[in-house]
């Protein structure tokens, strides 16, 4: 049986939570391998809705869940999320949740810096969630991060705090802020350490043992490929690599363990926050897509920008992430449109592109070249077989496959877990 890696193939918010939940029922282990608690996954199970930002989606069903070293961990956000789902009847115990000992921590000073920078950026704002994710990754790369394993040795943290504070004190002074309160930071870490440490494990070791035993591992990505720090719409991106290849380095398994790469793709396109969006619709059609798709960010509550499906961007995401098959979600949102458009290229100041150029000025100037298809009046909501879909909806799915150069492995027709048309089983490869 293959392992499966699930990633978003647009700007995030593609409906990964439902798909991961659907797959996790058959996985032995679910792993988060990058990002922080700026990622939001919504799971609808029966009459209960779970909104997760940090915990792997498998935790809700009791599947062994792991947070890999590629994640930056806010321990206070972790505690709050564990308590929140406990109130919904889901108990999170150390035998069900393992956190990599080498995870860097998001600290209060990271949140401070995130907000100070964003407020001072003027027109250069990139729309961060102000949760400290970017500054935490910077400290990881700068070799001054405090990690989960350090919580067991806080009395020996002096040299690392010297490095950390030398950096942050200079930045804070530039914003007119006082130096880092080291005593308070140590007190905060001491207080949270007892909660976090029981979950701390050598995740790389556990995953390698699971692989040797032939267990099925499901890697759960956060955000989307177009927010990848290398391959996304820079600088309007997140601070980690969101492509499937990160599953290896962000968990402690080799690249051969990534397995079937399932790219989650919404049947139209959305984006939260600032940045280029060639197919954005700032009209009644865009508003209709947003209302029908309930397009509000899981983490921030911000209204998502909406537009037609962009086959160019998805094709690009598939290429850089090695996607094996896609899961097409929210097809039902397109029910009732007389015509549906698909972006098949861009015009950038008179030059045709079949990919999104890298420079921000060119991206801002990109005008979509559309192909128009007839819509369908019948409903697709809740369909679980091809026979239940209108012929024109099937035609739309097939055309999407052709344009993105990748087969559709499954189609989601509602937030409900079982409202899914399975074309190819990712775990069977």
From TrEMBL:
Pathway listed: Purine metabolism; AMP biosynthesis via de novo pathway; AMP from IMP: step 1/2
Binding site for Mg(2+): 13, 40
Reaction(s) the record says it catalyses: IMP + L-aspartate + GTP = N(6)-(1,2-dicarboxyethyl)-AMP + GDP + phosphate + 2 H(+)
Residues involved in IMP binding: 13-16, 38-41, 129, 143, 223, 238, 302
Entry GO MF terms: adenylosuccinate synthase activity; GTP binding; magnesium ion binding
Binding site for substrate: 298-304
Cofactor(s), by name: Mg(2+)
Gene Ontology terms: cellular component: cytoplasm
PROSITE patterns, A to Z: ADENYLOSUCCIN_SYN_1, ADENYLOSUCCIN_SYN_2
Chain segments annotated as coiled-coil in the UniProt record: none
Pfam families to which the protein is assigned, alphabetical: Adenylsucc_synt
EC number(s) on file: 6.3.4.4
Cofactor note: Binds 1 Mg(2+) ion per subunit.
Major localisation: cytoplasm
One biological process term in Gene Ontology: IMP metabolic process
Binding-site residues for GTP, renumbered to this chain: 12-18, 40-42, 304, 330-332, 412-414
Secretion signal span: none
Localization (cell): Cytoplasm
Record-annotated active site: 13, 41, 140
UniProt keyword annotations, A-Z: Cytoplasm, GTP-binding, Ligase, Magnesium, Metal-binding, Nucleotide-binding, Purine biosynthesis
The keyword Nucleotide-binding belongs to this UniProt entry's keyword annotation: yes
Subunit note: Homodimer.
Family the entry assigns: Belongs to the adenylosuccinate synthetase family.
Function field: Plays an important role in the de novo pathway of purine nucleotide biosynthesis. Catalyzes the first committed step in the biosynthesis of AMP from IMP.
UniProt-listed HAMAP family: Adenylosucc_synth
Protein name in the entry: Adenylosuccinate synthetase
Phylogenetic classification of the source organism: Bacteria, Pseudomonadati, Pseudomonadota, Alphaproteobacteria, Sphingomonadales
Gene name of this polypeptide: purA
């Amino acid at each position: 049986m293959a392992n499966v890696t699930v990633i978003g193939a647009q700007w995030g918010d593609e409906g990964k939570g439902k798909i991961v939940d659907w797959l996790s029922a058959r996985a032995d282990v679910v792993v988060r391998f990058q990002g922080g608690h700026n990622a939001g996954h919504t799971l609808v199970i029966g009459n209960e809705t779970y909104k997760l930002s940090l915990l792997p989606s498998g935790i809700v069903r009791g599947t062994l869940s792991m947070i890999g070293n590629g994640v930056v961990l806010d321990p206070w956000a972790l505690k709050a999320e564990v308590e929140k789902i406990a109130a919904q009847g889901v108990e999170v115990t150390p035998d069900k949740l393992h956190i990599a000992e080498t995870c860097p921590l998001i600290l209060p000073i990271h949140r401070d810096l995130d907000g100070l920078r964003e407020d001072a950026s003027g027109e250069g704002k990139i729309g961060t969630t102000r949760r400290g994710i970017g500054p935490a990754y910077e400290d990881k790369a700068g070799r001054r991060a405090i990690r989960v394993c350090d919580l067991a040795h806080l009395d020996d943290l002096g040299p690392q705090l010297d490095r950390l504070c030398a950096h942050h004190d200079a930045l804070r002074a530039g914003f007119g802020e006082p130096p880092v309160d080291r005593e308070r930071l140590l007190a905060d870490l001491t207080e949270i350490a007892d909660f976090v440490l029981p979950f701390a494990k050598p995740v790389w070791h556990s995953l390698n043992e699971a692989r040797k035993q032939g267990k099925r591992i499901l890697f759960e990505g956060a955000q989307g490929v177009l927010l990848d720090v290398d391959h996304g719409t820079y600088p309007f991106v997140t601070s980690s690599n969101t492509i499937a290849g990160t599953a290896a380095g962000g968990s402690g398994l080799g690249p051969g363990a990534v397995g079937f790469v399932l790219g989650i793709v919404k049947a139209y396109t959305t984006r939260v926050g600032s940045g280029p969006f060639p197919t954005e619709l700032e009209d009644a059609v865009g508003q209709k897509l947003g209302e029908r798709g309930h397009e509000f960010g899981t983490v921030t509550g911000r209204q998502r920008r909406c537009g037609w499906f962009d086959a160019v961007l998805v094709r690009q995401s598939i290429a850089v992430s090695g996607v094996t098959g896609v899961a097409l979600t929210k097809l039902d949102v397109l029910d009732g449109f007389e015509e549906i458009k698909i972006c098949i290229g861009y015009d950038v100041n008179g030059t045709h592109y079949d990919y999104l150029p890298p420079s921000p000025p060119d991206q801002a100037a990109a005008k979509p070249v559309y192909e128009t298809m007839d819509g369908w009046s019948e409903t697709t909501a809740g369909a679980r077989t091809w026979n239940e879909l209108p012929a024109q909806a099937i035609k739309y799915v097939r055309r999407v496959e052709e344009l993105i150069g990748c087969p559709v492995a499954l189609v989601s027709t509602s937030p409900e877990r079982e409202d899914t048309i399975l074309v190819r089983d990712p775990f069977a490869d």
